[in-house]
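Below is one such record:
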Amino acid sequence: MKFISIGGFFHDLNYTFYDSDNLQSLISVEEERFSRIKGHSLLDDNISTDFLGLDYILSHTHTKPEDIDYCVLSDKIDSPFAHQILGFFPSAKVVRIGHHKSHIFNVRALNTLPDTEQADCIILDGYGDNLSGQFGNMMCFSFECHGSFDQSASLGLLYTSATQHLGLGSFGNEGKLQGLAPYGEYKPEYSIHNLMSIDNKKIIFDQKLNSHTGFQDQELYAVAALATNEYYSEVIPKRFPDEPLERQHMDFAFTVQEDIFSFIIKLINQCFPEPSKNLLFSGGMAQNSTLINRMKILTGYQRVITSTSCSDRGNSLGALFAFLSTFSIELPTPNNFLGIEINPLSQEKEIDLLPHIAHAAELINSGKVLAIVDGRAELGARALGNRSIIANPNSTAIRDHINSTIKKRELFRPFAPICIDSYAKQYFDFSLDDFNMTRCVKATPLAGEKYPGIVHVDGTSRLQILSNSDSHRLIYKLMIECLKSHGIEVLLNTSLNQAGQAIVNTYNEAYDTSKAMGIDALLSKKGLEVLS
């Protein structure tokens, strides 16, 4: 049987394909990687949606639209765009999973969990299916929902509206608030602590936090909630993007984030008074790697499990896995690399990459900035070494250079470290699940001394760890060479994209983008190309 799944009906449109007769057939892609419009939204009248990701899937798998047996939709609420998409697949049976169930199954699809172990589950999102989240339990691939959180009390929208109030952007820009917050201090005059409460496992907001009267449509509701936060406007003037960031903005960011995080910990403890060993956490709020660290420390769970695509951009994958779990179908092994394959040598003789890798390591050692493209694209907003910018983080100057000159973004934005597992403990305090940039962990004093470019102002780093299972990858080979020849154990890793644009998809995009950004060289299976 052949399956197509669709997610991201409001933003971050995405698709997943699977042929049950071929375990290697799983593909999951985001429309933004093809349209080059970040956060590609079906609801934006200024965006033309040609469903390029669907075209790629069908052509790559040699599948005709009429060959699709099931079309799985992540959301239950009807959408005119859903009808348009369904018209592409005339023979397919239609299945609707549910927005938040799709979120939690995205995390389950990308993580191993023993069939005999129960996991508590919580989804905290902006909005979807007229809710802002759910909670329940999962055993194997069976999810039992125990309760829901109303759309009128959305922690996700509350966080996004704070981001927007500071002039940092709206959906998809919440990481800027996360990066800014550690520069501030807690100020009671900005606190929202007393405006949130929990009643019988229900989230209650004071009206000031979310004006929503008269809006029944969830998208209109979200726009209103973001634009009319009365409380934020009372305590601090709205900042516009061209205005300087001042101390008051940092303090506001810290205080709001701290109050939301503390509330989430309290909510989890009330929803799960007798917690299991594992907590699966999904939805837009689960993209916050600082929050994941706080949950791991303060909730007592042995594992806090999330994914690099737990926002709407991974909902097609989650919806598909939720549906496949009802069949007696063997499910694919968890894998974050589900997008386009870069293979510029498809019909050419392979070259000896060792001299190119050695040259790349020399450039990194000398302070140059490299791009690296290899294999299949990562699903989600985290570049895990297949569509990355790489540098030696032995100074804060390289961090500032990449922020200001290469990526042209705010100087307060941190960068992530990538490290081989056998050296990671020297530099970071991490546990089992901290290997895909999903959680900020404490950096050791040695990390701050040797590699300050990847240690944030609060002493944390959003860590990625490679192991022997990655030995076939170009990034692993490059790290081994950097270690062997130059003693560099940790590299700076950030996504290969210009500010405001999607991560590159193809080799040509990688080359053109690297050239335009002023990156010094590009490493791929084609070899090392010096660009400047």
User: Anything to note?
Assistant: The longest helix spans residues 247-271. The two ends are 49 Å apart (CA to CA). The chain has a mean pLDDT of 93.
